[in-house]
Automatic annotation (TrEMBL), chain A:
Belongs to the binding-protein-dependent transport system permease family. LivHM subfamily. This is Urea ABC transporter permease subunit UrtB. The gene is urtB. CDD domains: TM_PBP1_LivH_like (cd06582). It comes from the Bacteria. Transmembrane segments: none annotated.
Length: 308, 381
């Protein structure tokens, strides 16, 4: 399979595919971060996570249309406004869902899975009714278009670089919130021992609601970033949900570092293989490998040791 | 066994009324088109029945039942497809005697794994064995390592995703996204005529009841009780010296086999098989049939399947955009308000009154019963 390429070509291929993998990695990380918080920290299976992401994407699309028609002078900066709006919209919806649905089901994780699946169907149909079945794409501002020539054979698209920088920033913010802030300490306390956390005066219900909201909000930002590299349709979220769950489970739930490492492994494996075989086979091989590894090591790559 | 009788009185009532509905009332009042629709719904009832065993009794939620349904269906479809692509039927192809989609994909000879499907006996064995074996491998790998609950659900869902991508990707061997179409005869018997459809319907009802009786038998044996005990208190069962993993593997395999039988029936009834019955979405829809019927109720599974599918056909015929709202709402409502589904509603609100009626009648006729049973030598109820 490598026979037709020279060493230099191969290097360029691996670099470019590696970079394509990095963009996929960014989307995975952004989606998986929210999921890792919700699933890893709260033990809730949120099947509607992809739909929260798509909500962010639609908010971004609406914002870009608004800026285009009303504030064309500020268009180059619309993305930052859109990102914040996407976070707020998805986060608010997430908190509403937690209040109306999830909090009744904390003791029945399998039922949460079914209920959130139902929610995802409703949201999908709602998007289809409101925004139409066709995929929509945002117009990128001028400075994000084009690509950067690194060497003669390697060039990388600027929107990809932007999405990666964004991912890095958001990951750092989330890590700070979860591991350094007072609120993150409360979240981790609730996860490790809910009753004890309540006994020392933490309002566990409130922590749950904000945690769920934060996870969904990050999904909204993921959707916002997603518009930079692809178009959005009502069912786009569903395409990513299984992959993202595998990313979280493979990395070891409750471990943010594990999530990032597994997102990196999976996205790189997939995009490198994609060059040498058909996309569907690359995906099948990647998923099969993950499932096989999970069967041998069910706790994932990095398991958090907690006394249960 | 606590109850020495195979069916208690209300179960017997449920069994007989279901038999009456499926074998007498529906065939009498529905035309062939609608009856064929019911037959299609009933193929899912096999899956729902399997889910009652592994989810309701064993507590293992599998989101990959579509894979087993599909495997059974594809095994059947491969046999029918080979029969439909005889040399005489396919002489316009560049390679006569192989299925048309292989010819379109420049495959010039029948692949090895297709060869056994020339024989109906081997096909039936494959339908029963291949999905069960796959379930055994998945189950053994996971349950021996004590993976369960949500992890198991997610991994089975990933397997459903893998299966769909694989079937669509390997177009030359599987027919790709279109699936296997244009299936005509079963050992020379045309399955597309109205007459054949009615006969197949009755055959399916027969097989379904065989499966119901099997499930009921498993439920009543010690095995069934251990399954329930395991769902409630897994550790206690383990500490009592039972191998929890083996029982879970059994339940999962049985569910897979039921699903595969359903899949094979589906292919016979509908005349094609495609990846759209394998993936994540159909698999999770099959779970909702069971949830609506009541995850603990064998008869509930059949009623739930019929009801949800009927609603789906009705709603998507007249208001296609409402159907997803309805289905989504159904998921949420069942989980939040009716965790025991239809059978729970029946038990809490209807069965009580029926029991009271029967009790009233039997107290009235107690004397008559006593005399009669003394004469028959049978124990009075």
């Amino acid at each position: 399979m490598f026979g037709d390429y020279s060493i230099g070509d191969l290097g360029a291929i691996f670099a470019m595919q590696g970079f394509a993998g990095l963009i996929l990695f960014s989307v995975y990380v952004l989606m998986a971060l929210g999921l890792a918080i919700i699933f890893g920290q709260m033990g809730v299976i949120n099947m509607a996570h992809g739909e929260f992401m798509i909500l962010g994407a639609y908010v971004t699309w609406l914002t870009s249309s608004f800026f285009q028609s009303h504030l064309p002078s500020l268009f180059s900066g619309y993305f930052f406004v859109a990102m914040i709006l996407a976070f707020i919209a998805s986060g608010a919806l997430g908190m509403l869902v937690e209040w109306g649905l999830i909090r009744h089901l904390y003791k029945r994780p399998l039922d949460t899975l079914l209920a959130t699946w139902g929610l995802s169907l409703i949201l999908q149909q709602a998007y289809r009714s409101v925004f139409g079945a066709r995929e929509v794409g945002v117009e990128l501002p001028q400075w994000m278009m084009g690509s950067k020539q690194v060497t003669d054979t390697i060039e990388v698209p600027i929107n990809g670089i932007f999405v990666m920088v964004l991912t890095l920033g958001i990951t750092m913010v989330v890590a700070y919130i979860m591991y350094k802030s007072r609120w993150g300490r409360q979240v981790r306390a609730v996860v490790q021992n809910r009753v004890m956390a309540g006994a020392v005066g933490i309002n566990t219900e409130k922590v749950d609601r904000y945690t769920f909201g934060l996870g969904c909000g990050i999904a909204g930002i993921a959707g916002s970033a997603f518009t930079m590299i692809g178009s959005t349709g009502p069912t786009s979220g569903q395409l990513y949900i299984v992959d993202t769950f595998l990313v979280v489970v493979f990395g070891g739930a409750a471990s943010l570092f594990g999530t990032i490492a597994s997102a990196f492994t999976i996205s790189q494996a997939q995009s490198t293989m994609e060059f040498f075989m058909s996309g569907s086979m690359a995906k099948v091989l990647t998923l099969l490998t993950i499932v096989a590894i999970l069967m041998i090591r069910p706790q994932g790559l990095f398991a958090l040791k907690v006394r249960k | 066994m606590i109850n020495s009788r195979f069916f208690n009185r209300s179960e017997l009532l449920g069994f007989l009324s279901l038999l009456l509905l499926l074998a007498v009332i529906l065939p009498l009042f529905l035309d062939v088109f609608r009856l064929n629709l019911v037959a299609k719904y009933l193929t899912y009832a096999f899956v729902a029945l399997g889910l009652v065993m592994c989810w309701g009794y064993g507590g293992i939620l599998s989101l990959g039942q579509g894979v087993f349904f599909g495997l059974g269906g594809y095994c059947m479809a491969m046999f029918l497809k080979l029969e439909a692509s005889s040399v005489a039927n396919t002489k316009i192809q560049s390679t006569p005697g192989i299925p048309d989609f292989m010819d379109w994909n420049q495959i010039t000879s029948l692949p090895m794994f297709w060869k056994p499907f020339h024989s109906l006996t081997l096909t039936i064995i494959a339908i029963l064995v291949v999905p069960t074996l796959l379930a055994f491998i998945i189950g053994a790998a996971m349950f021996k390592r004590r993976v369960g609950g949500v992890y198991f659900a997610i991994i089975t869902q990933a397997i459903a995703a893998i299966a769909t991508i694989l079937i669509i990707g390997q177009q030359g061997y599987t027919g790709g996204i279109n699936g296997m179409t244009d299936l005509r005869t079963l050992n020379g018997w045309d399955i597309r005529t109205d007459h054949a459809k009615v006969i197949l319907y009755f055959f399916e009802v027969f097989v379904l009841f065989a499966c119901i009786i099997t499930a009921q038998f498993i439920r009543l044996t010690k095995l069934g009780r251990i399954l329930v005990a395991m769902r409630e208190q897994e550790d206690r069962v383990r500490f009592s010296g039972y191998s929890v993993a083996n029982f879970k593997i059994f339940a999962f395999c049985a569910a897979a086999m039921f699903a595969a039988i359903g899949g094979a029936m589906f292919t016979l009834q509908i005349g094609f098989m495609s990846p759209s019955f394998v993936g994540i979405v159909p698999s999770i829809e099959m779970v909702i049939y069971t949830a609506v019927g009541g995850r603990m109720s064998i008869f509930g599974a059949v009623y739930g399947t019929l009801l949800v599918n009927y609603a789906k056909t009705m709603l998507s015929e007249s208001f296609p955009e409402l159907w997803l709202f309805g289905l989504g709402g159904l998921f949420i409502a069942v989980v939040l308000f009716f965790p025991n589904g239809l059978s729970g509603i029946w038990r809490d609100h209807v069965a009580r009154h029926i029991d009271r009626l029967i009790a009233m009648r039997s107290s009235k006729s107690k004397k008559a019963w006593a005399i009669k049973s003394a004469a028959d030598g049978a124990p009075a109820e």
